[in-house]
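The instructor's notes for this session suggest beginning with a concrete chain rather than abstract definitions. Hand out the sequence below and ask the class to guess, before any prediction is shown, which regions might be ordered.
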Amino acid sequence: MTNLAFLNEPGVLWNLKQRYAADAIYTYTGSILIAVNPFAPLPHLYGPHMMDQYRGVDLGDLSPHVYAIADAAYRQMRKELKGQSILVGSVSVDNDGVERQPASAALQATCTCWYDGG
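After discussion, reveal the predicted structure:
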């Protein structure tokens, strides 16, 4: 989204719609991650194989992902020896828990970094 020629509401919505159609539910705007609820499980986006892919990689070097945010926060915490925060907001409600995927994935990735020693 940082490459949009015009950063306005129609441009942002068009970008999110195009990414959503390609199952790219995550996008960055600066260091902020936007997640669009897919209303369906996307298991290929989560798990140890994806955590390993994002571990130690600078934010923005790979496709946007909640694991990238979690890893960046964890590495910054270790570097600065200060606490970090990840804010997860949701405006959608889905009975099967799909809207909680970004929050639980960030927590899972952060805990895995801690358990593995970073």
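Then share the key points. The chain has a mean pLDDT of 79. The helical segments are 9-21, 48-54, 66-80, 101-116.
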